[in-house]
Fold each of these.
Amino acid sequence: MSGIHHVTAIAGNAQRNFDFYTRDLGLRFVKRTVNFDDPGTYHFYYGDEAGQPGTILTFFPWEHAAPGRSGVGQTHQTAFRVPASSLGWWTHRLTEKGVAYQPLEKRFGEPVLAFSDPDGMSLALVGVTGAENEKAWAAGGIPAEHAIRGFHGVTLLLEKATRTGAILTDVLGYAEVAREGAIIRYQASATPGAYVDIYEAGGFLPGRMGRGSVHHIAFRAADDAEQNEMARKLIEKHGMHPTEQKDRNYFRSIYFREPGGVLFEIATDVPGFAVDEPVETLGKDLKLPAFLEGHRAEIEKVLPVLEEENAS
C-alpha cells in the first residue's frame, strides 16, 4: 500500500490549534504527546477514529514561532477529502466560524474550497464523488455525512519536478496520472492520501519554515522490510542519504530531503496509535515514550493546559 502516511506542520498557540482542528474541522484528537527531540513542546496528532495512515495531521505548537513564508521548496497546500455534495455545507460552516475562504475552483475536474488555518497554513477541501461511502469521524457538531475523510493529497511548490517525480514513482509507489497547466499529478494506491501534485514554478522566493508551514510529509511503508527496500533505492538509484531509522512509538521513520527541498519521511504503518492506549480513549492523556517517562513531572509543568470541552 502506498500513499501519504501523515503531514506534520508548525503551529503557534496550542489551544487555538486544538480548537480549530477538533471543533471547527471536526478531526479526532488522536494523540497527545511531545516532540521527542524537544520534549518541552507538545506534538498533537489529529485524524480519524483510529488515526489510520492517510488521515493524520500533526503539529508542533511553538507559541512564539515566527511566521513561515510560502515559497519554492515547500508544501504549498494540504487538502482533505469530503463528499462532493458537502462543499456547500462546508462554505456555510467556514462562514459561521469566521474562516475566510477562496472562491470555489476546479482542479483536475474536482471542486476545491481553499482556506487557511489560524496560523496561515494553506488548506483545502476537495469534493470527491463517492467519499460519502467512506468511514467518517463525527465531532464538533459536524454530521458524519459531511465529515472529513482524511487527506486528499498535498501540493508541492518546486522549481523543477523531474527528480522529485522520479522518487515518487520509483521509490514511493506513485504514478504520474495527469497534467493541468504547471501542475503534475501523481497518484498512489491508498485512499485516503493518494495524491501528490507538483506545482512546477520557477522564479518564486524560497519558502521559509515557521508558523503555518509544513515541516515534512511522511509516506507509507507497510513495515521495516518495505522501508529498508525504499531506503536502498534512494541510495543506489537516486543518490539520496536517508537518516537511520528513528522510533516514533507509533511508527518507525527515516527522513531525507528530496531534490526539490521538501523534507520527506518514510513511516511504517505499524504499530499504530493504539500501542499505548485504547482506540476508545485516544488523545485523552499525555503519552510519553519510555525514555521520557522519568521526566513526566517536569514536562507536564511546562506544557500549557488544554481546555477540551466537546473535543470528541
Note: Helices lie at 14-24, 87-96, 162-170, 224-238, 296-302.
Amino acid sequence: MNPAQVFSIVNAMAALQWLLLIVMPKWKVTQWLVNHAAVPLLLSAIYCIYIAVFFSIHGGGFGSIQEVRILFSNDKLLLAGWVHYLAFDLLIGFSIVKSARASAVSHWLVIPCLALTFMFGPCGYFLYQIIYKIKSSQ
C-alpha cells in the first residue's frame, strides 16, 4: 500500500471516531472505543511500523527545524507524522469527553472543543480548559 492509500484509510478511521465522539458520545460502541482507545492504538501501531521501517533519512532528525524539514520531505515519514497527530489528538478528545462527563460539563459546550481538537489539536484542548475552569469556579 502506498502512503496516499494509507493516508486515506487512517483519515477515515480518525474522522469516524471523531464523528462518534461528537454525535453519539453515549452510544455503547463509542464508549467501548473510548475506554479501550482502539483507534489510537491501531494508529499507534501504524506509526510504529512506519517509523521502524522508514526512519533513516540522511540529514533528517529532531535536532533542528532543518532536520525535521528533511524528515517530512519523505512521504512515508510525513505520513508517520500525520498518524502521530491523529492518534494524539484523538487521545486528547477522549480525555476531554471523559473529563466533561466526570465534571458534568454539557456536551453542547464540548462539541466545539472536540471539533477544534480534531482540526487544530491544542486549540480545542485550550478551549476545553477555559470552559472547564469557568464551570469549576461556579
Note: The chain has a mean pLDDT of 95.
Amino acid sequence: MPIIVRLDVELARRKMSVGEFAERVGLTPANVAVLKNGRAKAVRFATLDAMCRVLECQPGDLLEWVED
C-alpha cells in the first residue's frame, strides 16, 4: 500500500509507549500495533483526530504517501 503510517516515528519522538498511547487515544494496544506495523487498511477521521490530539501533530506527520 502506498500510504505509510509513521506512528512509530512519532511515538519514538515523544518517548511514548504503545500502551500509554493506546489508553490516551482510546484504542486497544492490538489496534495500535496494526497501525504501527503498517497492516491497517483504513483509519477513521475520528481516530486520526484523537491520534493528532494526543501526539500534538498534524495528519501529515502520521501519514505519508509513497509511489509503488
Note: The chain has a mean pLDDT of 94.
